[in-house]
Amino acid sequence: MSRDEADRTLARLRDERDRISAALLELEAHHGYQLLEGAALGGGTRRVQSDVRAGMTSLWSLFERYDGVIGAAEELRARIPRPGQAQLAELTWLLAGPSVELPVTEVPLGRRTLLSVPSGERLTLRAAVERMTPLYEEVAQAVAALDAVWSALLSRLAEVEAERRAADELLASLGGTEPELDRLRAELDAVAAVVRGDPMALADGGRADTGRLDAIHTRLAEVRRGLEQAERVRDGFTGRLRAVAAVLDELREEEATARRTREEVLAKIAAPEPPAPPDTAASLADRLAALGRPGHGTGWPDLAARVGELERAANEALTRARETTGLIRGLLDRRAELRGRLDAYRVKAARIGHAEDAALARIHDRARELLWTSPCDLRQATVALSEYQRAVDERSKGAKR
Predict the structure, then answer these.
(1) I need a surface site. Which of 99, 115, 238, 382 has the fewest CB within 10 A?
(2) 312 and 269 belong to one structural domain
């Protein structure tokens, strides 16, 4: 090389060296690389960690020797401003020749002789860069893949742990125990150990598999909502008890109404027999009286469940009582309807000229006797009325002909 050629080559190599150094430092500063460096890992992730460390060691070792050659060329050029042929030949060898000596490696046993001496490989600066490039790409890809999986898992884990802390804080304020939360806490600790110690065990096709964390998060959210419900029970405990007591007062009144209505129906209706009225107010009142504030070994979550169950039972009982009253009263309504229909058909019979029809009158009187006799057999009355209706309808058709 001439002096100008050597200077141009040296400038290019200096820039190349600086860019390689910056790339290596940036890789070491990468979030994924920092996670690897500071973690005690196991399983497949430990193998990734070992490969990355070995790759970076090789990269820095090769770069240091590469940098050493360029540094030697810089020192020679700075020391001799006007290099002669000997110095230019040395610069040419440093910049273009096999001047990068790799570390001495063991000669494989099959290639050894009795007097063989291990020797290192020598590369040009260009060949050294070509050797470093795939090493760098392998390490960078491994770090990026791990970072993508690990970051996704750690992010989801942070969300799940926040959900657990929220549930823990609620339970601490409420007192008592929550077995499901204890179980989920243990399950989360087990998954968290995998996330932090071997995240690649939770990778699926190069992507993070957050399925277990998602499931735990869903169940923790359900537990938290239950605890929030318990908190609302605690905060509105007295009011909710008053509300249940008010429903039970309505229930007692409705059940009493059902009993009175049934007694009236039994006096007026012989068949069918009205349904028996419910009698649940007393037992529900006992359950209400048994509800107190949490005692030793229990907490508001347990009391919240009991209050909720009592509220549902009281409302369902009130609905059933109202339905039963309606069914009982419906028998009286049925008798009134049949009476009205009998009168309507008697008017129809008179309108078509059969007011004095003796046979029709006998059928009418039979139905009227059943409907106006107490207690009334609605089944027989219905049959008698149907017979009277058919007779009137037949005569009506005859009158039209």
Answers:
(1) 115
(2) yes
Identity of the amino acid at 291:
L
List Cβ neighbours of 315 (8 Å cut-off, separation of 6 or more).
Answer: 247
| Mean pLDDT, residues 343-359 | 87
299 neighbors 175 (Cβ within 8 angstroms): yes
Residues 135 and 44 in one domain: yes
pTM of the model: 0.53
For residue range 54-80, list pLDDT tens digits in order: 999 989 999 999 999 999 999 998 888
Q: Are the C-beta atoms of 139 and 56 separated by less than 8 Å?
A: yes
Q: Do 50 and 36 form a contact (C-beta atoms < 8 A)?
A: no
Beta-bridge partners for 101:
122
| Of residues 121, 141, 125, the one with CA closest to residue 33 | 141
Q: Which residue in 398, 400, 389 sits closest to 360, CA to CA?
A: 389
Say whether both 8 and 94 belong to one domain.
yes
Quick one: DSSP state of residue 104? P
378: Cα separation from own chain's centroid: 58
Asked if residue 255 and residue 196 are part of one domain, the reply reads no
DSSP state of 198: -
Residue type, 388: Y
CA atoms within 13 Å, Cβ hemisphere of 32: 23
87 & 220 share domain: no
